[in-house]
Amino acid sequence: MIVKHVAMKTVQKSSFVELTKYITSAQDKQERVGQVTVTNCHQRDPLDAALEVYATQAQNKRATSDKTYHIIISFRVGEHPSDQALKEIEQKVCASLGYADHQRISAVHHDTDNLHIHVAINKIHPTRLTIHTPYFDHLKFGPLCERLELEYGLERDNHQVRKTSSEARAADMENMAGIESLLGWIKRECLPELRQANSWSEFNQVLTNNGLEIQKRGNGFIVTDNNGTAVKASSIARELSKEKLETRFGLFEPPPKAGIAGMKQAGNGTVLKKPIGKVGKAPPPAGLRHPDTIGKIGVLHLDSGKRYEPRPVKTRYDTSTLFARYMEQQDGFYADKKHGMQAASAERLKALEDAKRGAKLKRAAIKLLGESAPVKRALYAMTHKKLLADIKKIRADHQRIKADIANRTRRQSWNDWLQAQAKAGDQEALAALRARDAKREPRRNSLTTPTSASVLDGIKLDNVTKKGTVIYRDGSTSIRDDGDRLKVAKGSGDQALETALKLAIVKYGPCIKVNGSDEFKERIAQVAAASKLNISFDDAKLEKRRQFLLATQQKQEKTDVSRHDQPTGRTQPSGHSTGRRGPGFSDARQPIARRFAGGGSRGDVRTTGQPGRAGLAGSAGDLGGSANRPAKPGIGKIGFFPPPPDRKRLRNVSQLGVVRIAGGSEVLLPRDVHPHMGNQGAEPHNGVRRSVFGTGGVSDPKTAAMNKYVAERESKRANGFDITKHASYNGERIQEATYGGLRNVDGQNLALVKSDDQISVVPVDEKTAQRLSRMKLGEPLSVSGGSIKKRGRSR
After folding, report:
1. Which CATH number fits domain 701-794: 3.40.50, 2.40.50, 3.30.70, 2.20.200?
2. Tens digits of residue pLDDT in 387-408
């Protein structure tokens, strides 16, 4: 988890209304904006609340600094906390910065590989109208994130500040735009040679060979290139600061002046020449003052060496061809914009001339009319009003056309261009984006395969992230494809999983590897079996489970078909009934049917129409085959299993079905009763038992919440996350322990108690949860019988 403050350096970015529009805009993506929260405002709609904030800011007349505070709360790849957890994290971050009572609007974004929250905060207090700016806020973010990671069980991040502000800005440029920065280029190409220099002359020569120059600026040094781009020398390396360089080489010696006189002879006889400047800036020195004819200007052959040029950051994918296309397109935008603006201006001038000429003709016609002066004045006024309206419309149309041209010819960064090309279906651009993420970590709830395939046609493409993750949409289903795996969002339904499996088959083939929790794998196996997909799993255990579910389903379908096709119910000549049996019943002959058949009666077996009650009747009929009655379960062996509606529900024997004999002269004999009838005991019904600690029946919501949380943490720990072992509280006394936080799972409060390198999860009531919320993490406590004590007192 990382919290970052986004500085507002322009007036437009400082506008709270514009910032709200940005963070709440979907930008033609269904997967971008998630939960939007408005805090401490009377209005609930985000844009209405932004206008309310704007009115509050306008009441402070003295503050001259920025009145809007913008932060981003970002999570690690694959982490998706619940909506309640995200809301609590946002509240605690704002409170730690002193903005608990301030107006703010937050929006959760899902359009990147990292789930993140944008928070727009009004720095003006809504009642006191004073401005609040956090002092050294960047120093507070690290400890705050560490505490929240521990409290909400998030993956630990590195919060140690190891880069200067210049290095951080250069890294942001390379990450966002994908273009190598001057600072990064000097570090990679020139820094080893600069460290080997033994004097100012050698140091300056290394810089000159690479088209660079060192200059004094303030109390330090800067390094510039031929285009005037400058970086601090101490940002390149700490040993290049002014103090350390002058300690190594003595007082600063500036590089020699440019020109023929400034050239030096190298030891191998090679002439070291001045670096190349901008094309057309100045002629070569030999012809500098003799521009009579082009033929007289001397040609200077320069060994230019390495030079910094804005190029894509080096990755494992060759982007030279793509970058050439990018530069050609971006250069063409300038000419297109120029021609478009000129054409729009010409069209505007022509429209204005036409409008003025028409108004002039109207005034001439009015002058020739033989009307009175008041009538003519009214006609002149109407003509003038119409002319002003036409001019206003022409100017509005011109502004709209200019905006369209600007949007169409706006220069894009390298990464933005790659995203646009990948979204349009360019596989080379998609591969270039994915090559930036050199190390892809295994992700939870994902489907992978060692092979690759082309993108599936027919499914809607919603977005492509800067790391090359393709987000597909199929209705409400969201599936992320990063090239070698498909990631399904947490909480997705069976339809989403089926869509993901179908997409995986088309992209990767029938052999799929599944990563995730045991619950996720079980759902995948069930969906694969239910949808009868031609698929197999890399995990032998999961594949065996899928085959078992598929075989069970096929067997059930065959049973249903046989029940539907058979005219069951009539006794056969052999005395055995082919009556329909319920699911799970034995295939043995039914003694009751054999007894009636032996008596020579024509008895048909059918249900009475009441749930849980089966009976015998003397009239002929088909079991479940009547057009007026739905298919109903049959009867198994007497005393072997209860009827299906009352299976495993033997608390009240009177609820079971009753066998009724139609004829009074026909009775059951001892030989008709199954010999093991008395040995079949009632099955335990633990669902109705409850324990003090919630460890009894499955109906206990506290137990279900506790087990769910423990299973989730243990599954994450098994996948390599640095998480302490979690265990469900078993009611034993824990004498020496410390407080580890509170969790809320499915509306149930859970307390975390640390002891002996283990965290015990204890269900607590609302009152105890409120008391524990006032405790600090790490405070000593003890647990006895589910009661949590602090400092010898029990609540």
Report:
1. 2.40.50
2. 999 999 999 999 999 999 988 8
